[in-house]
Structures are given as C-alpha cells and as structure tokens.
Amino acid sequence: MSDQLVIEDIKNTIYRASLYLDECRWADWLALCHEDFYYAIRAFSPEINYDMTYLDGHRADLVSMTEMLPKHNSDHSPLARHTVVYTVDVNDTQGTASCVSSFAVYQTQLDGINSHVLAGESNIFLVGKYRDIFRIGTGQPLFLQRVVQLDTRRLDKGTHWPI
Known about the structure:
Elements: H1 3-22, H2 26-31, E1 33-45, E2 50-58, H3 59-68, E3 79-91, E4 96-108, E5 122-135, E6 142-150
Parallel strand pairs: 1-6
Antiparallel strand pairs: 1-2, 3-4, 4-5, 5-6
C-alpha cells in the first residue's frame, strides 16, 4: 500500500476516534487501539516547570475505566471534538506512523451552572495536541500510543473519560 493511502487511513482513524469519543462509544474507540496501546493525558505547568499527568495507562486500564464510566457521578454535558491532523510520518521499516493533531473540545451545558453559564451554551472545554503512534501494515491502522498534551490545565469536575 502506498504511503499516501496509509496516511489517508490514519487520518480517517483519527477522525473516527474523535467521533467515537464524542458519542461515548468506548468499545468502538478501544477497537481502534492495539492490544499494547498506551494512553496518557498531560499538561505542562510553568509554575513547577514539569509535565503534570492527569491519566496514564494501557489498554487494559482503559477498558476497566470505560466500563466504570456509567457508574461515575459525571457531568453529562456533551463534548464535541474538532480535530485537525497536522502531520503523519510513515516509517515503513518499523511498521509505524507518528502523527500530530490539534484539537479543541467544546462542551454544551445541559444545565445552567450559574449566572455566567446558561443551559444550552457551548464553550471551549479543552485545547491541545494529540501525539499518536500507529501500528501499520497489518490492515487498519491501530493506535499504539496516544499522548494528549493539553494546553488547558484546569479540568472541571466529572471529567473521568478519555479525551
């Protein structure tokens, strides 16, 4: 398969992952992930000059976490990701591809929180970059690693789910 077709498959996988996450289709999202998948959510803190880690785990950890999500007391206001793939670099000899995507996550409030946020209002919830590594060459590209590098450092209550 040509590199251009691989790149298109990877872009489609990234966009499909965003859609599955938006729709809380955890099993479908995890089906896009290799059995050795690693996932982390981080944000750099200039105050301590260090990356803060919000979530760190492997595929088995995420399966367990997503199975528990319906039991958590969470904010059910819907999230919508706007993802743009910037780069895809294919490494045929290693059977991998590395990608960088930018994302913005919008949240539409189900209930008014206070006089500043009204029910039905949409706001930017998070912004950052996805730094992905894919396993390629065996059919559909599968996520081997996703490091979510947040620009946003203040997460609200009820944010138990993958970003």
